[in-house]
Amino acid sequence: MLRPQLAEFMRRMEPNSVAILPAAREATRSNDTEYRFRQDSDFYYLTGFKEPDAVAVVAPGKQERYTLFVRPRDKEKETWTGRRAGVEGAKEIYGADAAYPVEEFQEKLAELLDGARQLYYRLGNGNPELDQTVIRQLARMRASGRRGVRPPQSIVDPGTILHELRLFKTDEEIALMQRAADIAAEAHREAMRAARPGVKEYEIEALIEYIFRRSGANAPAYNTIVGGGANATILHYINNEAELKDGDLLLIDAGAEYEGFASDITRTFPVGGRFTDAQRDIYELVLDCQERCIEMVAPGVTLEEMHERSVEILTDGMVRLGLLRGDVKKLIEEEQYKKFYMHRLGHYLGMDVHDVGLYHTDGQPRPVEAGVVMTVEPGLYIAEDADGVPDKYRGIGVRIEDDVLVTPEGYRVLTTEAPKQVEEIESLMAR
Ligand code: GLY
Ligand code: MN
Ligand code: MN
Fold it and tell me: Global pTM?
């Protein structure tokens, strides 16, 4: 039985074509130690295979439609680095029609490519050796044209099919994403309980990631951001080394990866448990913007429209608070808001935190459809040394980020278990 994702991929391939998809490779952390292995999302989506050094070949028109090249069983190596499915496992567990040791990929390539009109292969995807192998093979085949060897005529990015499939989540995938969201929401609640003056940012990071792992998440879906005070105004602050101070806000952007799917949540709350008036001004503006943008989510809306709306709401609010001065329309035209709101409202979410899928089609912003999951994450970041802003707002950074599924009727927020109303946060922290 073929995995449904693979069966659908085959259905969408051009007739008489072949696809080559490599697994991720091990990455060195230092000298001879490696990062924990994380499978390539495309490869994992199609195969469910978790080991490095593998190549999948998909050829729907051939006798052997699905071939896996894998690391062979090896008693000694497995003692050091862990169990392998091997050639037998590739067939029995992962459903390959044929399987070979990965060392044989190069010599089998000519036969696999022969007669295919189109090759699906993603050139320049971080595996230059494999790129070279494929290119050399194509050159060799062209040189042998007189002997009846027929190289593929075109090379197409398999992402054209695969990323469209990945953009629309099935019910099973949504269930995994809900679990990833629930785990991250719990971590954010516990972080709110644990934060107080004197605690280090890394202690909060450790608590969050402990909850992720304890709950069966593979890892954080991206580097956890724990930024107290003005650190919250640095968008990708991951040092997490400072001490939390009374009177400061704490911005936490943390999401879990569960069974290959990401969650991505940001919450911002006061270290001491109560918002100051100035913090509340900014927070309520960002929250109002976020809620109104979430309400726009439904089949047919574009992320572009939502982003533009967020710019209008935030710019209008910033004029009201004295962060910007002038006519709202003109300020938007001149992109003055970018001083304090420099990123986009949101992105697709899935196996990758910034997930695949086209944002534009036919040169136009693309309307979303049911099954798409996106983040909605407006923010305002007022640097400590920002010019021409009221003193009380300097050093305040606020972002609020939820994960939202597009449904046939509208939307469902996956991350409701992480509190974001001022009263909810203050009462949770008072306990
Ligand atoms: N944590 C990455 C993002 O929010 O896009
Ligand atoms: Mn995000
Ligand atoms: Mn985030």
Answer: 0.96
